[in-house]
Design a protein that fits this description.
Strand content: over 45%
Radius of gyration: 18 Å
Number of domains: 1
Structural class: mainly beta
CATH class: Mainly Beta
Shape: globular
Largest sheet: 15 strands, mixed
Order of helices and strands: HEEEEEEEEEEEEEEE
CATH topology: outer membrane lipoprotein receptor (LolB), chain A
CATH architecture: Clam
Helix content: under 10%
Length: 248
């Protein structure tokens, strides 16, 4: 039997209300385990609030995962809705994004992954189009909400400090509505800084500390590669996990 602790429904302000709404439901055979959480977005210098993000993560019987994210960047009047799917190793299998930016609705795109190709089907202000891009075996998809950023390093050995280059399919998310929501493959330098135990409002976590582009620090926790903190000092940005709940 699953023991329900709490569940975050995307866009729901009350985790307690979400838990109450699902009480008494039977076990779902397609779900082995659930996680749900919330991030705060603030400035590092004075803690000014910029937005928040909520997510639900489902681990399925075959070991694959579905990550649903609602990203509220109030400081820029932007809202992103994202669904990521990954196989048991965290290699992407598909993604769906729908973007509102400060200038209006930018569009929606489905990313379908085969072994060596991502097919991107976009609909937005510029119309509809389909584009294919070749990808290597080891890559990730960058959709911009932070909940999925721990998955970028799925193939990096974190047992000791190291450095290298990631292949990231970076998704266009600028305010320019004439630019469709498509991805382009970019090289991103990374470092494995080491193992660190950190504390956030959500609790204490034994994490692996990574650094991307020499400027963005990420602390990633556990078998589900949950991001618990991201710092970007150059831009005065802090993203921190403030709630994390599980269902066993």
């Amino acid at each position: 039997m699953h023991t329900l602790i709490k569940v975050v429904l995307l866009g729901c302000c009350s985790m307690a209300a979400a838990a109450a709404s699902t009480a008494g439901l039977p076990d779902n055979a397609s779900i082995e385990r659930k996680l749900a959480g919330r991030y705060s977005y603030t400035t590092i210098e004075d803690g000014t609030a910029r937005g928040e993000e909520v997510f639900q993560l489902f681990v399925h019987p075959d070991g694959s995962r579905t990550l649903m994210i609602w990203h509220d960047l109030a400081a820029k009047g932007a809202q992103f809705s994202v669904v990521l799917r990954a196989d048991p190793t965290f290699r992407p299998t598909s993604a769906y994004v729908s973007y509102w930016v400060e200038t209006g609705y930018k569009g929606q795109t489905l990313f379908a992954v085969t072994r060596d190709t991502v097919t991107m089907t976009h609909t937005g202000p510029t119309g509809s189009q389909q584009v294919e891009v070749p990808v290597p075996e080891q890559f990730s998809i960058g959709t911009h909400p932070v909940a999925g950023d721990g998955w970028h390093l799925w193939y990096v050995d974190s047992r000791e400090p190291a450095s290298g280059t990631l292949d990231l399919l970076s998704v266009e998310a600028s305010p320019d509505l004439e630019k469709p929501v498509l991805g382009s493959l970019v090289k991103m330098p990374y470092e494995v800084v080491g193992e660190e135990t950190i504390r956030t409002p959500a609790g204490e976590f034994a994490t692996t500390h990574y650094r991307l582009l020499g400027a963005t620090d990420l602390w990633v926790y556990g078998e589900d590669r949950v991001l618990v903190r991201m710092e970007q000092p150059r831009f005065d940005r802090l993203y921190e996990l403030v709630e994390l709940e599980t269902e066993q």
